[in-house]
Amino acid sequence: MTTTLTAQEAEKNKKVWKMFEINPFDLDFGGKPSKLKVVYAQFMVVFSMISALFLILQIVQIYSHSDAMGQSFSAYVIFLIGQILWIIYGSLVLANKNMPIVWGSIVSGLLSIPILTGIVLYGKILS
Question: Which of 6, 15, 87, 113 is deepest in the core (most CB within 10 A)?
Fold first, then answer.
């Protein structure tokens, strides 16, 4: 079963999807990205990866004490799924591949894997 859209419905859909075309390097009146936007975008790539490193503290805590009793397995699974969705959104949906979102999510997603492993090993969720 296929559905066809009227011209008016198609135009409405274009307007809705246009809202999701976010470009962090919007061209300003000079026809080139402003220096502030370029510097800010570079800063956000670095900051998104550094801020994701807070997960290293959890990893050290879990493995140095061989204890993950205070950690929530389901919360980290949801967090990992969210990071995967942000990677997809940042790399496929956003215009010009929004790298702060993509790299921050990649780092966070990768760091959540040893946390989940530690929770399984030391959190007694399977007992």
Answer: 87
